Amino acid sequence: MSEELAQGPKESPPAPRAGSREVWKKGGRLLSVLLAVNVLLLACTLISGGAFNKVAVYDTDVFALLTTMMLLASLWTLFYLLRTVRCPNAVPYRDAHAGPIWLRGGLVLFGICTLVMDVFKTGYYSSFFECQSAIKILHPLTQAVFVIVQTYFLWVSAKDCIHVHLDLTRCGLMFTLTTNLAIWMAAVVDESVHQTHSYDSSHSNTSHHRFVPDPERAGSSVGGDCPCNTAICQIFQQGYFYLYPFNIEYSLFASTMLYVMWKNVGRLLASSTHGHGHTPSRVSLFRETFFAGPILGLMLFVVGLAVFIIYEVQVSGEGGRTQQALVIYYSFNIICLGLMTLVSLSGSVIYRFDRRAMDHHKNPTRTLDVALLMGAALGQYAISYYSIVAVVVGAPRDLLGGLNLAHALLMIAQHTFQNVFIIESLHRGPPGVEPRDTTPKEPCHGLTFANLDALHTLPACPSTPRLVGPSPEGAQEAVAVILAPRGHWRRRCLKDISLFLLLCNVILWIMPAFGARPHFSNTVEVDFYGYSLWAAIVNICLPFGIFYRMHAVSSLLEVYVLS
């Protein structure tokens, strides 16, 4: 007895060891977050300071910081790839939910466009090399290398749950994520500066151009002007600014994937769920749909492109045609947002009749998707509420004021109901999986043919596992096959709704991302708040609204696959 009592305390250390490991896991995450916050604040300070001419921070300082960050992030990425290749046991698990093929495909597409932008930017700065700092040419070249390395890294490693050098990996992933956020911030600030300069030029009796170079940012490191008189120089200049939206989306896509990898560092997955996911091996677009959603979505997409071109041409032309362009722009958006709101509501109603079980398993990717949808929508909420106050309190009684008010109200409703539909869709289980009934029941023996309509009226007599298969998985598959015709129309409707909302979100992303700014063309808010305050509101909130549209596209594609 005394020996057993003596041996008892010796077997207890494993529990505290696991607890201390969990505590240090939180400590490692805290260390990496503190590193990211400090680096991001430094980058934010330099980028925002370089946007103002009165601050003695030149754009060369910003380029030097971004180039250094991209080089360090690229070196760490190469180190990670070499380490995982040399150590096969470094990644014992892979998260099936992380890095779906459509997200990685979008990353590759935006990465290719970013590489084209870097070529244009290199050609632009090389056109007047004699008055430029060398860092301005080195920066796009370094970014091209960074994009290539990072895209390959995320393509092959987005699902990794690495289990070696945990703290170093967390810090490296957070630093790379911060580098992408700094690139995104620099692109957004540069775009805002050019939009502001364009507005100032159009209101000083000069011709309105979409992008007017700011002398402090397009000039040399000492603020001197660099002439861009040749045709090739102007092509490079216009080209790389029109490609900025793709660079912005690339940085945000990469940031979301890096965050999921950071959450998966040291994560343990059960053997039963290892490699399990809802993504089918083969996805066929327009399969099992009524074709109403895709056709209507394509029609709105084409009409939206025509409206966007008309808006850009008329707003960039004579001032007398600006109001006509705004009426066309607001009318299309009101129709599109109204249809999207009704369709999202119909999708939520269909889910009231859906018998699929809710998926409550731990899923960092889904948690991040929901947080980004809710957080990014706040940007458009803010702009809409500011517009509502300006229209109602300012009391403009013309047609444009009414369209502006209707547009703001529908924008709020559309974001709200679309978020409800997407979030509920992401939490649904795969088709055919119904909620489990845990109440004890006695099996009914002797059934050779099961009439489902009759069985649903007999809750005490479910079909026995021996009839449908030797395992619970076989029973679920058989029930899914039998119930498929009953829920077939619901799945078709959900697929149509997903494709329709997807196409509408694409066109609503294209318009603001490529320069549509009715917030400034319509002078109601500018006159009410003043240009400085209204420009600050739009320049801060609109990038989140643009990101919301593209992130909604990614989420809706996943909803389409899971429906």
From TrEMBL:
Annotated spans, Disordered: 1-21
Cellular compartments per GO CC: plasma membrane
Transmembrane domains' residue ranges: 30-50, 62-81, 101-117, 137-156, 250-270, 290-311, 327-351, 371-393, 497-516, 528-548
Keywords: Cell membrane, Hydrogen ion transport, Ion channel, Ion transport, Membrane, Transmembrane, Transmembrane helix, Transport
Subcellular location: Cell membrane
Superkingdom assignment: Eukaryota
Membrane-topology annotation of the record: Multi-pass membrane protein
One Pfam family it belongs to: Otopetrin
Molecular-function annotations in GO: proton channel activity
Family: Belongs to the otopetrin family.
Identification of the protein by name: Otopetrin 2
Gene for this chain: OTOP2
